[in-house]
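Can't paste images in this forum, so I'm doing it all in text. The chain is below; anyone willing to post the predicted structure tokens underneath?
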Amino acid sequence: MKEGYLRWRQHIPAFILQYAHDNPNTFGEKGLASFQRQYQVSESMYQQFVRFGKAQGESATPPTDTFTQRELKRFLKARLARQFYGDEGFYTIWNQEDEMVKEAVRLLRTENPLVAARKEKE
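Text version of the structure:
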């Protein structure tokens, strides 16, 4: 991960607290499954986050590469989910793109997960 990602990511928790306070009824009523499928961090929200970070004194240039922006938006969405749906919301969003988690879930769905995992290693 690039240094800029870590520097900007540190501002997300405080930004989300403010954002959730300013938009209290926007998400909670829809349910986590609906939020997971339908909600996308808009470019407008991302730019609000950048302005917030700058106002907090962040001197690093905001990331311009697609990968880093996508990861920051994923973390914004996960933290927003935590704010409205608790830890289950955070991990549901955060893990949906994690290949290791996907593989673990796939193996756990087999009849005998330990045997399946060992067979695939051989």
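The first helix runs from residue 3 to 9. Residues 61 and 72 are 14 Å apart (CA to CA).
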